[in-house]
Amino acid sequence: MSDADAKNPRVPIPRDRDNDYTESAAAMRRAFIQERTGASLEHVGRYSLEPGTLPGNIENFMGVAQVPIGIAGPVRILGEHAQGDFYIPLATTEGTLVASYNRGMRLLTECGGVKTTVVERAMQRAPVFLFEDARAAREFGEWLTEHHEQIKQAAESTTRVGKLLHIARYPLACNLYLRFNYSTGDAAGQNMSGKATHAACEWILAHYPKKIRYVLSGAIDTDKKHSLLNVLQTRGRRVVAEAVLSREVLERIAHVTPEQLFEYRQLTQAGGIMAGSAYSGAHAANALAAMFIATGQDVANVSESHAGITYAQLLPNGDYYWSVTLPALIVATYGGGTALATQRECLEMLGCVGQGKADKLAEICAAVVLAGDISLTSAILAGDWVSSHDKYGRNRK
C-alpha cells in the first residue's frame, strides 16, 4: 500500500449481508453518502416501490431518480399486434417534447392512423474462435454446419423460450467470427442469448476433434452499440411504421405542404449521408428514450434501437406517404425492469404487460417515432421550432 493509500483508504459502500434490499439498508446508504458528500438526499429517498422487489435490477439501492411522465395521444395504430387508440407515457425532462409528439399523434390519427408491422426478430451473441491459419478456420466452419442440430440442442437446453435460428459465419485472417441468432419471446434476450451461446460453445469445445479456443463475444453482436450489421440483419425487432398523410390535414395541423416535406426529405437525406448519421429521420432517440424509461426497458439499448431509415413518396393525388423502418428495436414486456411498480403501470396503460406482448410494444414504439418525426420536421419547416422551445422548453429555476 502506498503512502497516499494509507492516508486515504478506500471506504466501501455499506451493505447488509443478511438482506440488502430493505428500506433500512437504503437509508443506511443515504446516510453514508450524506455524511461523505454533504448532499441532501431528501427526494432521492422518497419512493413508493418495495425494495424487496429490486434484486436482479440494481445493487446498493439507496433511492430513486424521479423522471416526470407526460401523456401524449391518442394515436391510432393499425398494427398486427397493436390495434386501436393508445395514450402514450413519455418519461422526459425535455420541454415541448410531449406536446410535439401529441401533435404528431393527432395528425396521424386524423389521417386514419399509422400502420405498423414487425417483419423480423433476432437477438445475437457473437463468439470468435481462434485457429493457427485460415484453412483451419474454414474446416471448423464446415464442421459447424454438419453439427448444427447438436449445437442447437445445447444452446436451447439453457432456456424455455429461446430458439437458435441460425449461425452466421464471418471468417477473418486465422479467426472465425460467429453470430448466433435467436428468437427470445417477450424478453429482450441479451442475457438469454449469452447463456445459450456459452453452452453451445462449451459443447463445441468438448466435441470438436481438434484443440481450439474461443472468446464469448468477438464484438460483432454490437451489444449496446450501433452497427451497420444490425441495420442490415436485424437485432431485436425490425419494425416498420407507415402512414399516408393528407394534404388538408398537413396544412391545417402542421402548416406545411407535402411538397415542402418532400423537398426537405431530399435535403436531410443528403445531409445525413454526408454526416454518417445512424438515423435518417428527425429524432427516433427522443421517443424511444422516453418510452424506455417509462416502461422499464434497458435505456442503453437506445444506442442500437434509434437507428433507422425513413422513406417517403409524394403521391399522385398530392398526399404524402411517410414510413420509418427501425431494424434494431430492442424491447421487452417480460423480465428486466418491466415488473417494477411504475414501469408495470405504464405497460398496463398500453396493454403490454407480460408474455405475448413484445411485438405489440414494438409496434407502438415505431408509431410514436413516426409521430415525433412528423411533428418536429413540420415545426422546422413552419418556422416554430425555435419559438416553441423558447416558450415552453426553458426551465431556469
UniProtKB/TrEMBL annotation:
Q: Which UniProt keywords apply?
A: NADP, Oxidoreductase
Q: Which biological process annotations from GO are given for this protein?
A: coenzyme A metabolic process; isoprenoid biosynthetic process
InterPro entries for the chain: HMG_CoA_Rdtase, HMG_CoA_Rdtase_cat_sf, HMG_CoA_Rdtase_eu_arc, HMG_CoA_Rdtase_NAD(P)-bd_sf, HMG_CoA_Rdtase_sub-bd_dom_sf
Q: What is its EC number?
A: 1.1.1.34
Extract the ranges annotated as region (Disordered): 1-20
Instruction: Give GO terms: molecular function aspect only.
Output: hydroxymethylglutaryl-CoA reductase (NADPH) activity
One Pfam family name is HMG-CoA_red
Q: State the family named in the UniProt similarity comment for this chain.
A: Belongs to the HMG-CoA reductase family.
What PANTHER family would the database entry show?
3-HYDROXY-3-METHYLGLUTARYL-COENZYME A REDUCTASE
Q: What is this protein called?
A: hydroxymethylglutaryl-CoA reductase (NADPH)
